[in-house]
Specification:
Elements: H1 23-37, H2 41-50, H3 57-64, H4 72-81, H5 86-100, H6 137-147, E1 180-186, E2 192-197, E3 208-213, E4 221-228, E5 231-238, E6 242-248, E7 258-261, E8 273-278, E9 285-290, E10 296-299, E11 310-313, E12 323-327
Antiparallel strand pairs: 1-4, 1-12, 2-3, 4-5, 5-6, 5-8, 6-7, 8-9, 10-11
Pfam families: HTH_31
Region (Disordered): 1-23, 104-128
Biased composition (Low complexity): 117-128
C-alpha cells in the first residue's frame, strides 16, 4: 500500500494522554483508546475480569459518555483491559493525576530532549506484591513523579489555597476534590504520625496503623481520597507494596485494629472514615470515625508511647481521640522495589 495520502499520526491526537489538558480531553483520549483496541464494552469487561478488575460494561459506557474525570481505579482497569502494559498504564494514571491537580503537561520546549514526545513515567514495569497490598510500584512511581510538580497545599490548616480549588470535600480541610496527600497526627503527640507498625502483643503479624515519629514515617505516604461528603478512604502508598486502604478489622486477634488492604473498594464501609472537625479554624482538631461502626479512632490504652496502635472504640471525648490533619505537598518520587536476590 502506498504511503501517499496516509496521514501521519499527530502526537497531539486525543489518544495521547500526555497531551490531554482537561477532563473532557482525557475522557476523549480514553474513547479513542477503546476504538483503537477494537474491543466491545462486553469484551473489555471480560478482559478486565481476567486481570481481577471488576469493570461492568455499563460502567465503561457511562464513564466514556461523560466529560468529567474518571476515577483512578477505572483508568487503571480500563487501560489494562485495552491491552496496555504496566508502563503505559502508569502513563495514563500519571496524566490523570496531573489533570486532577490542575498542572499542565510539559510542552516540547519543557520536555528538553524529548522533543514533545511523551516521556515514560517509569523505568520498568516491575510488579512487586506483598500480602494485602496491591498494584505495582511502576504505577505508583508514575503518579508520584508527576505529582512532584503539582499544587502544594501548605502546612497545617491555616495555609490558604488558590481560588481555583473545588469546594472542600471535608469541612475544615482545604483538600482537593480528588484528594490530598496528608499526615495524620495524634493531637496529644503532634511529633508522631499515623503510619505503619506492628501489633505490640504479637498476636497479629501483618502491618497495622500505629503512631511513630514523623521523621521515621516517610513511608508509607498517606493519601486521603474523598468517597462522600466528609468521608474519605485513608490510602497508604508504598514503593514496595503499592496502594492499600486502611480497613477496620472486625474479628480475630486484630479486632478493632486498622490494616492496609489491597482490595480497595468505594462501597466497603470498613474502608471509609468520617472526618469531623471541632474547635476554631487554624487550630481545629478532628475526630476520625469508621463509617462501618460510627465509633472513633483512638490510641490503644490511651498510650502516648511510640508504636502505640491506632484502634477503634466508643467515642468518649478523651484526648486520645483527637487528631490533627496536615495537608502536605505531593511526594517527589517513590523508590522502586528491590529486585529479587538483591540486598
Amino acid at each position: 500500500m502506498s504511503q501517499k495520502g496516509v496521514r501521519a499520526k499527530s502526537p497531539q491526537e486525543p489518544s495521547q494522554p500526555a497531551y490531554a489538558r482537561t477532563p473532557a480531553e482525557f475522557t476523549e483520549a480514553l474513547r479513542a483508546l477503546r476504538i483503537r483496541s477494537g474491543l466491545t464494552y462486553r469484551q473489555l469487561e471480560d478482559k478486565a475480569g481476567a486481570h481481577g478488575d471488576p469493570l461492568p460494561a455499563s460502567t465503561i459506557a457511562s464513564t466514556l459518555g461523560r466529560t468529567s474525570l474518571p476515577r483512578e481505579r477505572f483508568v487503571e482497569a480500563f487501560t489494562r483491559a485495552c491491552g496496555l502494559g504496566e508502563e503505559e498504564v502508569g502513563q495514563w494514571l500519571a496524566a490523570r493525576h496531573r489533570i486532577a491537580t490542575q498542572v499542565s503537561a510539559p510542552t516540547g520546549d519543557e520536555a528538553g530532549d524529548a522533543g514533545g514526545t511523551p516521556v515514560p513515567a517509569t523505568d520498568a514495569p516491575a510488579r512487586a506484591r506483598a500480602p494485602r497490598w496491591r498494584r505495582t510500584a511502576a504505577l505508583l512511581g508514575a503518579a508520584c513523579i508527576v505529582a512532584a510538580g503539582t499544587l502544594g497545599l501548605g502546612s497545617r490548616l491555616e495555609e490558604s489555597a488558590p481560588d481555583a480549588l473545588p469546594t472542600m470535600p471535608v469541612t475544615g480541610l482545604r483538600m482537593l476534590a480528588v484528594g490530598s496527600w496528608a499526615r495524620i497526627h495524634p493531637a496529644r503527640t503532634p511529633e508522631l504520625c499515623l503510619t505503619e507498625g506492628r501489633d505490640r502483643t504479637s498476636r497479629y503479624r501483618t502491618a497495622v496503623a500505629t503512631q511513630r515519629p514523623c521523621e521515621e514515617a516517610g513511608l508509607p505516604q498517606v493519601y486521603l481520597e474523598p468517597v462522600g461528603k466528609n468521608t474519605v478512604q485513608i490510602q497508604w502508598h508504598h514503593p514496595k507494596y503499592g496502594i492499600g486502604c486502611l480497613t477496620v478489622l472486625s474479628k480475630g486477634p486484630a479486632r478493632n485494629l486498622l490494616e492496609p488492604r489491597d482490595d480497595c473498594a468505594d462501597d466497603n464501609r470498613a474502608q471509609q472514615f468520617r472526618i469531623e472537625s471541632f474547635g476554631p479554624r487554624g487550630t481545629a482538631r478532628f475526630l476520625i470515625r469508621p463509617a462501618v461502626t460510627g465509633q472513633c479512632l483512638s490510641l490503644r490504652d490511651q498510650d502516648t508511647e511510640e508504636g502505640t496502635e491506632i484502634v477503634q472504640g466508643r467515642c468518649s471525648g478523651a484526648a486520645d481521640q483527637d487528631f490533627l490533619i496536615e495537608l502536605i505537598r505531593p511526594p517527589l518520587t517513590v523508590a522502586a522495589p528491590k529486585k529479587p536476590g538483591t540486598n
